[in-house]
Design brief:
Number of domains: 7
Keywords: ATP-binding, Helicase, Hydrolase, Nucleotide-binding
Organism: Acinetobacter bohemicus
CATH superfamily of the largest domain: Tandem AAA-ATPase domain
Low-confidence stretches: 6-18, 442-452, 512-529, 948-953
CATH class of the largest domain: Alpha Beta
Mean pLDDT: 84
Number of strands: 41
Protein name: Superfamily II DNA or RNA helicase, SNF2 family
InterPro entries: Helicase_ATP-bd, Helicase_C-like, P-loop_NTPase, SNF2-like_sf, SNF2/RAD54-like_C, SNF2_N, SNF2_RAD54_helicase_repair
GO molecular function: ATP binding; helicase activity; hydrolase activity
Distance between the termini: 48 Å
Structural class: alpha/beta
Strand order of the largest sheet: 29-30-28-31-32-27-33
């Protein structure tokens, strides 16, 4: 850990000392660990130190407090990097007292107890003071002392044992063995029964070795032992054919030691028991001596110390060897293999041992093993001595590998740079070209306005975006550019966004917060110095149709009398059946696919959310893989949470005969990438290509699941694969012609491409053109031709050309499938509750509202460009959460909260569940407190940065599953940004949009987490809005605006209007 906060500049040593003392706060703690109040803006050294502990997952945040678990504290005490800063934790002095422990009952008693009976000093004199323990802190007559780790573990183990209700002899012995070991190390004072009761529960083994020569073969005897093992332990162990859970062994003093065998230890002993007479011989002996863990099972790494095993080998006089290397070359003069001749360094007449280095990879491992800093090295189970002559041979071998690596680099570069390996649409390799078209920009001539999710982020953290923070954001953008990263951590927000989004946010903040904005990038790239980075150049079809794919004149599909869907044999049709609209979807896909790739190259699946498109696509893909004559692999590209859903549905609906799936993202991706240093220098240095997959990365996989970011980063590997089918799920990710991810998708070589999105047109008809330029190049002509022919006449809001609109609709119809839930799904009714849209404004809200309007007018007159967004945010918060501006106000001054409580009480009476949507964390925290006070509910909150997949803590899906699993009334709070993909919450049937999204599609997407296939109740949707009788509030105006935009949503060819033009009307 780099304690960068500690390196802040100080003028003098006295200032450092003064600041240090000022930063130390009184000690707070509980049974879990140390506690420290969370500071939103760190002010002193202690604040910064706690912040760094939380960032490194050493401490964690809970209820606005940092918590440092005791076990983590003890680890910090052992870490030299923390030794100079631990005083910031204000730890008490260590105690010199030792625990006094007594017992009640015998080990075989079900009520056997081990009890902490006070404390004593080093002379065993019991303390008479008032002593209380909390966690690892001992309070003695009001003075606090810190326990050491061993004593704390001892007391925690005693407490753990005391909580067990169903005890038996075996359990009592196991716990006493563990407590006894800790008690001895803690110098605890034990009563007479405990002192005389010897129970050993070894968790570690020491493998002593003895080497013999039997029938001219090397034999090694393995003698397992452990700490405090009785002298006749090994004899007792050998007496049984199977490893026992417990051994009773007589002691020389007449007593009995009970040895309780831990499950992990038993597994290792069982592997040793499999060895005839605990002996290994020949090659197995050498392999065992080289790596005993490989033969003793997974638990051996926890049970056996590698250092202890090496010492056992030395004690057994297991010899080393000398080595001679003989190399072999091919007709090109390149090294291909080597023979290793080993001779035992024992002074005895022994035959040489011959080994082979048969592959280049094996040779690299051999050199790597040799170069480890040690006078000896291990190879194939043999201990080999290093010599100066062997050093010379190794250097020659490295030179040979350098030559062959140079040859392979040239071959690798040739394969990557050869355009014949890519689709016909790839026309070159070079730096990305900036695309210009009036139809890529808004009609206003401005680039796309700050996206909704960034606008919400800017408003959420606007007070934290000082000039210093903006400069830090700029630094992080530059660093990400230099390191080739595609994510940037937003300062103070603990939120990661894409590099492109970070640049957009930076530009917006610079305009709002600086009198003279720094030079920013023209979209989509920042004007920062960066290394050359080549990409696949494609025929972009902007000015003219450079690349075309002809579509058949007639794509016949009889909607009423079409052939039935062909389902794969792996589909578990006896347990699951397809709904009629799903069967239709599969049949429609199969009909189109029969014309591919010559007469059609793809389609747009634009179904409404919740209709089971993943299942339809899996059936389509499964049948193709089973029956295609020359099947090719299938590529599925989607956000990571949806990829997890793809895997889950494949496992649920199909049997083991279904396709082999390769997840090419996360940890799985790391194993298949070529390490950067093994990528050809020509590719790295001349072309900036640093991401490639290994040559045989695909293996025998039928379906590859990957993310849009991975597809973009690994385009030089993925675009060389001949895909049978390519699916882009949530294809709005590739609707921007200038985006690198869009270009990477269009560069893929696929026979049949499927774009899946419920919102194919979000901003303008350019979105639709871009999707069709992916699935059926040139059907809609070049972008400029399309813009003139279709976009202008259709998007002319003053005079829409409906005839042109119908021409476009008819042109794309054969390759578009769009069904809405209300048309095809057998769902209960979705009811919008309107009476909550007229909640009377309070007097406090009126007063605050007037202040904001007056402040906005003044700032606008002064030319402040950030005034509009700041004022909108303030008005939004006044309507939803006036207590942020007036913390001491009565709860009745927030009529929306009053409405919420009454509504939840009515829902509780029905025993039903509720989702509350708001993206503002301060409102989330406030609502959590209110719901705890009024309903006794510890409400779960899920935000966009909640884990989708994690090894530590609950993931987003875990949190939602836990909410759904509870019976009866319950509430969950979600951010609209948390529910974009892969979240299903059908157990809830009340959806409250406590604050509104700027985008009606986002709101509907959030609602549809509950209103989807699997919902069996009527779903009630609430848009609570603060209203006044003499003026239109922000929420009333926003509701009116969203309603008008929502009315256009059913027609996918009618884009949403530019919200930036209408924001001023909300004030």
């Amino acid at each position: 850990m780099k304690l960068t906060f500690w390196k802040r500049k100080k003028s003098t040593d006295s200032v450092v000392e003064d600041n240090l003392m000022a930063s130390i706060k009184s000690l707070q703690y509980d049974d879990v660990g140390l506690i420290y109040p969370y500071q939103q803006n760190a002010k002193n050294d202690a604040d910064f130190y706690w912040e760094s502990l939380e960032e490194e997952d050493i401490a964690y945040l809970m209820d606005d407090q940092y918590v440092l678990p005791w076990e983590e504290l003890f680890q910090l005490q052992q870490d030299p990097e923390h030794s100079n800063v631990l005083n910031l934790l204000n730890l008490p002095s260590p105690t010199n007292l030792h625990p006094v422990i007594r017992s009640e009952g015998g080990l075989s008693d079900p009520d056997f107890k081990i009890i902490l009976d006070g404390w004593c000093d080093q002379n065993r004199i019991k303390s008479k003071g008032l002593i209380k323990r909390i966690g690892a802190v001992l309070n003695v007559d009001g003075q606090e002392y810190l326990l050491n780790e061993t004593t704390w573990k001892l007391l925690e183990k005693i407490k753990e044992f005391a909580r067990i209700s169903n005890k038996d002899n075996k359990l009592n012995q196991k716990y006493w063995a563990q407590i006894r070991s800790l008690a001895n190390r803690s110098q605890a004072n034990l009563d007479e029964f405990l002192r005389k009761t010897v129970v050993l529960a070894p968790e570690k083994l020491q493998l002593n070795l003895r080497k013999n020569l039997i029938s001219q073969e090397s034999v090694v005897e393995v003698q397992p032992s452990f700490e405090e093992a009785p002298s006749n332990w090994l004899q007792t162990f050998d007496h049984y054919n199977q490893v026992q859970d417990q051994y009773s062994i007589s002691l020389p003093d007449g007593g009995v030691a009970h040895v309780v065998i831990d499950p992990q230890v038993k597994n290792v002993l069982s592997e040793i028991k499999k060895m005839p007479n605990r002996r290994v011989s020949g090659e197995r002996a050498q392999t065992f001596l080289h790596n005993p863990f490989a033969q003793l099972g997974d638990d051996a790494t926890e049970v056996i110390s590698p250092e202890g095993f090496e010492k056992s080998k030395q004690d057994a006089e297991i010899y080393s060897y000398s080595l001679q290397i003989d190399k072999f070359y091919n007709e090109l003069g390149h090294y291909v293999s080597a023979q290793l001749t080993l001779n035992e360094n024992s002074g005895r007449e022994q035959q040489s041992i011959l080994l082979e280095l048969s592959t280049l990879e094996q040779t690299k491992y051999f050199i790597s093993a040799y170069e480890k800093p040690s006078p000896i090295f291990m190879w194939a189970g043999y201990t080999i001595d290093k010599t100066s002559y062997l050093d010379h041979q190794i250097q020659e071998l490295k030179s040979d590998l350098t030559e062959i690596q140079k040859y392979e680099d040239e071959l690798q570069a040739q394969q990557v740079l050869d355009l014949s390996n890519y689709s016909d649409r790839v026309i070159g390799i070079g730096e990305a070209q900036k695309l210009n078209s009036e139809f890529i920009q808004r009609e206003s001539g401005e680039s796309e306005w700050l996206p909704q999710h960034l606008m919400e982020l800017e408003q959420q953290f606007q007070d934290r975006f000082s000039n210093e923070v903006i400069e830090l954001l700029e630094q992080r953008i530059k660093q990400a550019e230099q390191e080739g990263k595609d994510q940037v951590l937003i300062p103070n927000g603990n939120t990661e966004v894409s590099l492109d989004d970070a640049k957009k946010l930076f530009n917006s903040l610079s305009d709002s917060n600086r009198k003279e904005p720094i030079e920013t990038l023209e979209e989509p790239t920042v004007n920062l110095q960066k290394k050359k980075k080549d990409t696949l150049l494609i025929a972009n079809n902007i000015d003219k149709a450079e690349f075309t794919k002809q579509r058949a004149d007639q794509l016949v599909f009889d909607e009423k009398n079409h052939p039935p869907a062909r389902l794969p044999s792996s589909f578990r049709s006896q347990e699951f059946g397809l709904k009629p609209h799903q069967e239709y979807g599969v049949a429609w896909l199969q009909n189109l696919h029969q014309y591919a790739p010559e007469q059609v190259s793809g389609c747009l699946l634009a179904d409404d959310m919740g209709l089971g498109k993943t299942l339809q696509l899996l059936c389509f893909i499964g049948e193709y893989l089973e029956n295609a004559k020359d099947k090719k692999p299938v590529l599925v590209v989607a956000p990571v949470s949806l990829l997890e859903n793809w895997e889950a549905e494949a496992n649920r609906f199909f049997n083991a005969k279904f396709a082999k799936i390769l997840s090419l993202y996360g940890e799985n991706l790391k194993d298949r990438k070529i390490p950067k240093h093994l990528i050809s220098a020509q590719l790295r240095d001349d072309h900036g290509i640093t991401h490639l997959l290994e040559e045989e990365w695909l293996g025998d996989a039928d379906i590859v699941l990957t993310t849009y970011e991975t597809m973009r980063n690994l385009e030089f590997s993925l675009a060389r694969v001949d895909w049978g089918i390519m699916v882009c799920d949530e294809a709005q990710k590739i609707k921007v012609p200038t985006a690198m991810v869009t270009k990477a998708a269009k560069a893929q070589k696929a026979d049949f491409k499927i774009a899946c999105t419920g919102t194919p047109v979000e901003n303008s008809l350019t979105d639709l053109w871009c999707l069709f330029d992916f699935i059926q190049e040139n059907l809609l002509g070049s972008l400029n031709e399309f813009g003139k022919t279709y976009r202008r006449p259709i998007e002319n809001l003053d005079n829409v050309d409906n005839e042109v609109l119908e021409q476009l609709r008819n042109l794309i119809a054969p390759q578009v499938l769009r069904r809405m839930k209300h048309d095809v799904a057998d769902l209960p009714e979705k009811i919008e509750v309107n009476h909550c849209k007229n909640i009377t404004i309070s007097s406090l809200q009126r007063h605050l509202y007037a202040d904001v309007i007056n402040r906005y007018r003044k700032l606008s007159e002064e030319g402040n460009q950030g005034a509009m967004l700041a004022s909108l945010h303030s008005m939004r918060m006044i309507c939803a959460h006036p207590f942020q501006l007036q913390p001491n106000a009565s709860i009745h001054e927030s009529p929306k909260v009053d409405w919420l409580i009454k509504t939840l009480e009515a829902i509780k009476a029905k025993n039903e569940k509720v989702i509350i949507f708001t993206e503002f964390r301060d409102i989330q925290v406030f609502l959590k407190r209110i719901l705890l006070e009024r309903f006794g509910l510890n409400v779960t909150t899920v935000n966009g940065d909640s884990n989708t997949s994690s090894k530590k803590g609950l993931t987003r899906q875990n949190l939602i599953d836990r909410f759904q699993a509870t019976s009866g009334f319950n509430v969950i709070i979600l951010s609209t940004t948390a529910v974009g993909f892969g979240v299903n919450i059908q157990k809830a049937n009340h959806v409250i949009h406590y604050t509104r999204s700027w985008n009606p599609a986002k709101e509907d997407q959030a609602t549809d987490r509950a209103y989807r296939i699997g919902q069996d109740k009527e779903v009630f949707v609430y848009y609570p809005s603060i209203a006044a009788n003499d003026f239109d509030t922000f929420e009333i105006k926003l509701d009116r605006l969203l309603s008008s935009k929502r009315a256009l949503a059913d027609d996918m060819l009618k884009p949403n209007t530019d919200l930036s033009k209408e924001l001023i009307n909300l004030i």
